[in-house]
Amino acid sequence: MPEQEMLLVQLDRYWECFGCGRVIDDPATAKDLEKAGMGWGVGIACPKCGLTATKTAFPGQRFRPLFEMVVECFQLKRAILVLILAQTVFEAMLGDLIAGLLFRRDCPDDIIFGITNALRDLDTTERLIKEITQKEISKLFKEVGFEDIRARFGRIQSKRNKFLHSAKQKKELTIDDMREALDFAYDTVDAFAALYSEHPELRPVDRTQERYEEY
Ligand SMILES: [Zn+2]
User: Fold this and answer.
1) How many structural domains does the chain have?
2) How far does the centroid of ligand 1 lie from the alpha carbon of residue 170, in Å?
3) Which of 103, 87, 116, 68 is nearest to 181 (CA)?
4) Structure pTM?
5) If you measure from the C-alpha of residue 101 to the centroid of ligand 1, how many angstroms do you get, rounded to a whole number?
6) Structural domain that includes position 206
7) Whole-angstrom Cα distance, residue 7 to residue 183?
8) What confidence tens digit (pLDDT) does each residue in 92-137 have?
9) Which residues surround ligand 1, an ion (CB under 5 A)?
């Protein structure tokens, strides 16, 4: 299987239990979740909590086009786009985490949007998570086995910036740079799955499900 397609396999690997909030590594169910249990995996027991409640694909559907674009740009050898998209995927998933934290504190939707929209860099994002949870996200990633995920993001950002901003001696991106970003996107799925499995209280809220029914 071509390496870039491994990333697409990642999208059919995990599902999230609505009962306990954990993210389950179970490709057999994840792959045909659209068909299994009336399309919601109903009746299939969660190995963590035993509930046969509704399941949802992880990462959520709205992230999938981003991952697919990473793969497409890798195939087209558009290295800079692979780097930018890999960063975007990570930032978007972290933004979702913050939106969930704020939502659980009854923050109105327009304020949630305003805050996530105003977050311009990862340092600020991490500080905000620390303010809200008293936890350092990089430490949490470390605890679930992804100690270097933040440093890898930094390396990709640095390469991206060198390419975009060093006009005089433009640093050309290589296949290896592109591969590094692809691997990072791949591990981003695992890192967030591990994080939410260990810390279900941090997981994003599917805001299309709950609150919108209240209005
Ligand atoms: Zn469960």
Assistant:
1) 1
2) 50
3) 87
4) 0.90
5) 20
6) 3-211
7) 8
8) 999 999 999 999 999 999 999 999 999 888 999 999 999 999 999 9
9) 17, 19-20, 46, 48-49
